[in-house]
From TrEMBL:
Residues 322-404 form the RagB/SusD domain. It comes from the Bacteria. Keywords: Cell outer membrane, Membrane, Signal. InterPro entries: SusD_RagB_dom, TPR-like_helical_dom_sf. It comes from Arenibacter algicola. Belongs to the SusD family. Pfam families: SusD_RagB (PF07980). It is found in: Cell outer membrane. This is SusD-like starch-binding protein associating with outer membrane.
Length: 426
C-alpha cells in the first residue's frame, strides 16, 4: 500500500516562520516509515514508501492551486455557492493574505519540500549500503521535486519572493526575490540533473517519463521565464520533447479510486450546478480560430447558461478531464514544443514556425503564414494549447501584457501577484 507522509505546515503569528508537524495519513499503513526515522537514516525498505508518499502529496490542494491561477488568468470562472471569494477577491484583485486560496496551496507545496528535505537528511544519515549511483538517484529525485514545488509557489508570489532555504525549521532562510529564487531553483535542477544522469530513476516512478527528462523539461520552463533561450534549447534536447509525438506525452499526477487514494478534484461533470462549477471564460470561446479543436476543452452546456456572481451567464463548461481518475499534467510535450518555438522566435524564425505548425496541425489547423510567428502568435497558441493548466496568467505577466486580461464587471481588476501569507513573518 502506498504511504503518503502528510506534513502539515503551521504558520506562527508571533515568531513568523514555518513549523512542520508530521503525521501518517489516515487509512495508510501505520507500520510505514515515520519522519523521525527517515531523517535519522532512510532504509532500503522505507525508500519506495517515502518516494510514493512524496509523489502522492504533490497532489494535495492541486485543484485549489490550478483554480486560483486559472481564475486570475481569466481562463475560467470558478463558482462555489458556499464561497463567494472565487468571484469576489480573485476577480476584484483585493486579495486576503490569510485566505484559503493562498495559504492552502502555499502550505501544501512547502509540505512536499519538507518531505524532500527529510529524505535528503535521511540519505546523509543512513547506514544502509546504498551504492553511490543509488544515492545520486535519490538526491536527483528529491531536488527535482523540490524545484518543482518551489517554482509553483514563486509563480504565485512573483516579486514578493519565496523562502528557498527551509531545511531547518528553527533557522529558516529569508525571502529571495523573484530573479534570485529562479536562480536557486535552476541550481537545484542542474545539480539534480547531474545526479540523475549518474544514478538513473529512483523507484517508483509514476510520472510517465524519466525523472531526468522531467527535470530537463522543468529546466526549459525556468529558462524561458529567465529569457535564457540557449538554455531552453539545450534543456529541451535532454527532455522528452518529440515533434512527432503525442501532444499529451509528459509527466503527470496520477489519481485512483482505490482504497484511500486521491481522486482528481479538477473533474466536474458536464452541466455542473451553481454549487460547484468551472465555466470557460467567454473570451476563450469567442476568440478561438475557426476549426481549432483545442476549443473542445470548453463544452456547451446543454442545460443552459449558468449565472455566476453578476457575470455574463456562462455557456460552456471546462471539460478537460472526463473522469475523477484522469491524470493531470505537470508538464507535457505540447508545452515543450511551444517553448522551443519561443526560444527560436527571434534568432531562428524558421524553426519557430516549424514548431508552431506542429502544434497547429495537432489542433486541426493549417500552417501559419511564413514569417508570421511573433509574440501574438505564440501567446495565442499557448493560450489554447495550455488552457486551464495554469499558464495564461504567468505568460501575460512575463510578456508584460496583463492589461489584456478582460475586466468582466465594474469593480473587477487584474492580479499581478499574491501576497506573502499573513503569518509568514520575514
Amino acid at each position: 500500500m502506498k504511504i503518503a507522509i502528510r506534513i502539515k505546515v503551521l504558520f506562527m503569528t508571533i515568531i513568523g516562520f514555518l513549523v512542520f508537524g508530521c503525521t501518517i495519513e489516515d487509512g495508510k499503513d501505520l507500520n510505514g516509515p515515520e519522519t523521525v526515522s527517515i531523517s535519522d537514516g532512510v532504509s532500503r525498505p522505507e525508500l519506495p514508501q517515502v518516494v510514493s508518499g512524496i509523489l502522492a502529496d504533490m497532489r494535495d490542494r492541486l485543484n485549489t492551486q490550478v483554480d486560483v491561477i486559472s481564475v486570475v488568468g481569466r481562463d475560467y470562472w470558478r463558482h462555489q455557492s458556499s464561497d463567494p471569494r472565487w468571484t469576489g477577491d480573485l476577480m476584484t484583485g483585493v486579495l486576503d493574505d490569510n485566505a484559503f486560496y493562498l495559504t492552502t496551496p502555499y502550505a501544501a507545496r512547502y509540505a512536499v519540500v519538507k518531505e524532500c528535505n527529510l529524505l535528503l537528511e535521511g540519505l546523509e544519515n543512513t547506514t544502509t549500503d546504498f551504492s553511490e549511483a543509488e544515492k545520486s538517484a535519490i538526491r536527483g529525485f528529491a531536488n527535482t521535486i523540490k524545484a518543482h514545488e518551489l517554482l509553483t509557489v514563486l509563480n504565485m508570489l512573483y516579486q514578493n519572493g519565496i523562502r528557498t532555504d527551509v531545511a531547518d525549521p528553527d533557522n529558516l532562510g529569508g525571502f529571495e526575490g523573484y530573479d534570485a529564487a529562479l536562480n536557486t531553483i535552476l541550481g537545484l535542477l542542474n545539480s539534480a540533473a547531474t545526479d540523475l544522469a549518474t544514478g538513473g530513476d529512483v523507484s517508483p516512478n509514476t510520472l510517465g517519463v524519466s525523472y531526468l527528462e522531467f527535470n530537463r523539461a522543468l529546466t526549459a520552463r525556468v529558462a524561458a521565464y529567465q529569457g535564457n533561450n540557449s538554455l531552453v534549447l539545450s534543456a529541451l534536447d535532454d527532455s522528452f520533447m518529440d515533434f512527432a509525438g503525442d501532444m499529451y506525452l509528459g509527466a503527470y499526477y496520477q489519481f485512483s479510486a482505490a482504497g484511500s487514494d486521491e481522486l482528481n478534484q479538477l473533474f466536474f461533470a458536464k452541466n455542473s450546478t451553481g454549487a460547484n462549477a468551472r465555466i470557460a471564460h467567454p473570451d476563450f470561446v469567442n476568440s478561438a480560430e475557426a476549426g481549432d479543436n483545442r476549443l473542445d476543452k470548453a463544452v456547451l452546456r446543454t442545460d443552459g447558461p449558468l449565472n455566476i456572481g453578476g457575470l455574463t451567464p456562462g455557456t460552456h463548461d471546462v471539460y478537460i478531464y472526463e473522469s475523477n481518475t484522469d491524470p493531470v499534467a505537470m508538464i507535457r510535450n505540447e508545452e515543450l514544443i511551444l517553448l522551443y518555438a519561443e526560444a527560436n522566435m527571434t534568432d531562428n524564425p524558421g524553426e519557430a514556425e516549424m514548431a508552431i505548425n506542429v502544434v497547429r496541425n495537432a489542433a486541426g489547423l493549417g500552417p501559419v503564414l511564413p514569417g508570421s510567428v511573433d509574440e501574438d502568435r505564440l501567446l495565442y497558441e499557448r493560450r489554447y494549447s495550455l488552457f486551464a493548466e495554469g499558464h495564461r496568467w504567468i505568460d501575460l505577466r512575463r510578456f508584460d501584457r496583463l492589461d489584456e486580461l478582460v475586466i468582466d464587471r465594474a469593480g473587477d481588476n487584474r492580479v499581478t501577484q499574491f501576497p506573502i501569507p499573513q503569518n509568514e513573518g520575514q
